[in-house]
Structure formats: C-alpha cells, structure tokens
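Cross-check.
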Amino acid sequence: MPLLLLLLFIGIPIAEIAVFIEVGDQIGLGWTLASIFATAIIGTALVRHQGLQTLARVRASMDRKELPVQDLISGVCILVAGLLLVTPGFVTDTIGFLLLIPPFRLALGAFVLTSLMRNGRFTMRSAGGMGGGFRQPPKGRGPIIDGEFEEIDEDAPKNPDSPWTKGSGNSIENKEDDR
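Predicted model, tokenized:
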C-alpha cells in the first residue's frame, strides 16, 4: 500500500505534466488553460447536483431504517471526483469524470467492498434493529448515572482557618435564630 501511494504521488504529477505539454502543443496554451477552467466549473456543477441527489437518497434510506451502503459509497466517490475535478490536470479530470458516472461508481464500490470483505478488513454491523436505536430503562429503575464519588468523614479534623468553618454570624442557622 505505501508503494502504491508513492507511485500515485509521483506518477500522477509526471503524467499530468506530460499531458499538459502534449495538449499545449496540439491546441495552444490559451485553449489548454481555458479547458482546465471549464472542466473545473462543469465538474463542480455536476458534483453539486449528484451530491445533493445522493444526500437525499441517504436521508430517505435512513428514514426507512435501512443501511444506505451503496449511497454512502457513491457519496465518497462523488467527493473524490470533486477533489479530482478541482485539481488542475487532464488525468485527474478524466478520473473525476469517470467517478461521476453512476454505473462506474457502483462497479468500483462493489469491487472495493468485496475486496475489503475478502481480506477481512471490513465488517458490516447494524445498531437498533427494528425497534429503533434507544431503549427505555425497565420500570422501577431510574436512570443510571455514571460518576465518581469521594466519601467524606464527618469526624475528620476540620481546617480552622477556612472561612466556611469560622463563626462569623452570617451563617444560615444564625440568621434563622435572629428572627
């Protein structure tokens, strides 16, 4: 995995530079820069539209108490596509636009999910079940409060210099006696 990341961080910039040079030779510097800005703008609009649709599907699945695995995978792919489309370059734009095609996203998500499950690096768990998430405590037993406590010994020696133990005449007991 670290070798793959190293190859990506070195290989993609080299490929981007080579493609920039080739495209610049074919269509010129101005059109090359214009096409980079155009792909970023178009890609951002597509990511926004598809991202909002995916978010609506995730919310609908959660309302039906279903686990939206495919929609969450699509959301991650759309997020990566947005990052790639905003990054200047034709190679990253191509990968980003591929990630915006729903069948490609689903195939990639299925491949990644099955490979993770096959390697034992991924397990699916569900919480709540049919009844929902949180349960009420049994009747007759109040809420359980977790905390720490310290036992105070009433016969322990007191600090005579403390303003709380001095008989200043302003204590509650003395005020009640003055009535």
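Residues 29-63 form the longest helix (35 residues). The mean pLDDT is 80. Passed to J.P. for a second look.
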